[in-house]
Amino acid sequence: MSGQKAPAGRRTVIITPAPTANGDLHLGHLAGPFLAADVYTRYARAQGREVLLGTGFQDTSTFVVTTAHRRGVTPAELVATSAEQIASTLETMGIGIDGYTGDDDRFTKWVVDFIGRLYAAGRLELRTMTFPYSERDGRFLVDGFASGGCPHCLAEGCAGLCESCGHLVAAGELVGVRSTLDPSDPVTLREADVLVLPVERYRERLRAHFEANAGGMRPHMAQAMAHMLSRPLPDFPVTYPIQWGIQVPFAEVAGQVVNPNAEPMAWSMHASTLAAEHRGADTAGEDALWLAGGGSQIGYFLGFDNIYPFAIAGPAMLLAFDGRYELPTWYLTNEFYELDHQKFSTSRGHVVWGRDLAARVPRDLIRFFLATTSPEHQRTSFNADALARVTELRLVAPWNRIAERVNGWAGRGPLPVPERSRHAAALVAERFAASYELAGFSLNRAAEAIADHLGRLDRRVVSDEDAGGYCYEVRELVRAAAPILIDLAAAVLAHDTGSAATEITPVTLPHLVAVGAGR
């Protein structure tokens, strides 16, 4: 993944797609976009850059309804509980979100306004589409309501988006379609008129944009995007003939709602505005940070399965406004994070919740292990024994031995820091920067750098004459690892006056607590 730093004077707007409000965040959520976005944001701000990070929750997804049905609660009850849990887990894991969206009137009105402006400009058209239909319940089945095989890759899943190949999946084209709520329910196919965005009209402009920003994608997404944009794109349904969601005011589709996968651009704008307001900025409207020439570099940390709404349908909507908006220029995707090499499944109880793990394990250890195993280019897996073993060998034990050594000099000084130690620290910072910059962002390599340099400092034989240089290199390693090891960095650097130094007075360093050793 090639690319550049954000130009001086520009802000970086980072969005991580809103998780569905049908449960808490498990490690699969955290190991992908959330930890990565937080690490990058912390690093970039340490470099003096303006960064806004937004996310939230989405309650309009049909998966809220299917999960509520399975749990025997109302969708509204599920949303209320899930929204609180998601926010709490992000805070518990140290994920510093600036703008956290919800389901309030402000957001709903903005979505209707955004879609309404497309409608008023004639960019949406009425089309007849085929949908599965439950004869028993008398309702159309879309997205999470309909299951079957993907018509593009044959992988089993739900309608809407294919988790395997990333394509848009029309419910009426599912192979062997069935009702998700009740697989025994006879399903037929019926036609309904819906409003669509003719995405094909924008395909060449989309292709040109992504070819110009080819370095803003990891290889899997680049391959999928090239495939999708190499052939005609299907009409994208902006409204659905169902009841759950944001109601639209258009007479031709009275009683219909906004397709949840048509919300991403309006939602992203809202999230970025909330983020700016949280950080004290005065914005002039929900879309102010996205206006062309407004000084924003916009990008996403997201799962591969979300690329269609955020990189094709969404940007096509932006193009439909004839140059009003900036288009996102980079997408840092991740693959699935599994539990013991099987997909996380709340229905089967095959899950590890982020908050539950943080109650037993120091979050720096969790963040380090998730960074080590983050599914950047292929599926990876969480295992509790591996968490304990890897963090003990690569983080806790070497750090504690280093801390013991440094603590022997605590309070002495100031001690001289030789040029060779300043040079070594600069090399360390350079290696970490290569993993933190968007051009080559990698949690895996950043975690590897932490382990490598802890090992180097742990093995080093140090005399009293070299104590100042050694303590300085330890401190600078902590500074470089700070976006991941947030609590250790806060403790070590609490009274730090800066990295440039020719002398240092060593301070007492805290020890790390291993998994299972008590908190």
TrEMBL record:
InterPro entries: aa-tRNA-synth_I_CS (IPR001412), Met-tRNA_ligase_1 (IPR023458), Methionyl/Leucyl_tRNA_Synth (IPR015413), MetRS_Zn (IPR029038), Rossmann-like_a/b/a_fold (IPR014729)
Residue ranges annotated for the Methionyl/Leucyl tRNA synthetase domain, each copy included: 13-406
Gene Ontology terms for molecular function: ligase activity
Keyword vocabulary terms for this entry: Aminoacyl-tRNA synthetase, ATP-binding, Ligase, Nucleotide-binding, Protein biosynthesis
Protein name: Class I tRNA ligase family protein
One Pfam short name: tRNA-synt_1g
Reactions that this protein is recorded to catalyse: tRNA(Met) + L-methionine + ATP = L-methionyl-tRNA(Met) + AMP + diphosphate
Family under the similarity heading: Belongs to the class-I aminoacyl-tRNA synthetase family.
